Amino acid sequence: RDNSTQREHLEPTFRLRLTSPRQPLQPEPAHLLPAMDPAGPSSPPPPARRVAVRQPKNKAPNPVQITAEQLLRDAWERKEPPTSATAPRQQIADAQELKEYRQTKRKFFEDKIRMNRTNIPTWVKYAKWEETQLEFVRARSIFERAIDVDYRNHSLWLHYAEMEMRHRFVNHARNVWDRAVTLLPRVDAFWYKYAYMEEMLANHDAARAVFNRWMAWHPDDNSWLAFVRFELRRGSLPAARAVFERLLVAMPTPENFVRYARFEERTARDVGRARAVLERAVEELPDEFINAGLYVEFARFEERCKEIERARAVYRYAIDATTAKGEPAEEDRLKLVKAYASFERQRGGREGVENLLVEKKRAEYEALVKDAPDDYDVWFQYVLMEEAEGNEEKVRDLYGRATAAVPPVQVKRYWKRYIYLWINWALWEEMVAQDAEAAAKVFAECLRTIPNSHKTFTFAKVWLLAAKLEIRRANISAARKLLGRSLGQCPKRKLFQGYLQLESAMGEIERCRTLYKKWIAFDPSRAEPYLEFAAFEAALAEAARCREIYALAESQPELDTPELVWKAAIDFEIEEGDIDRARKLYERLLERSQHVKVWLSYCKLEETHGDPAKAREIFARAHAKLVEQARTLAPSLDDAADAGLARDLRTDRVRLLDAWKSFEAGPLGTPEALAAVERRMPQRIKRKRMLRDERGAAAGWEEYYDYVFEEQEKAKPQLRILKVAQAWKKKKLAEEREGAAERGVSEGAAEGAAEGAAEGEGGDV
Question: How far apart are CA 106 and CA 129, in angstroms?
Answer without folding.
Answer: 9
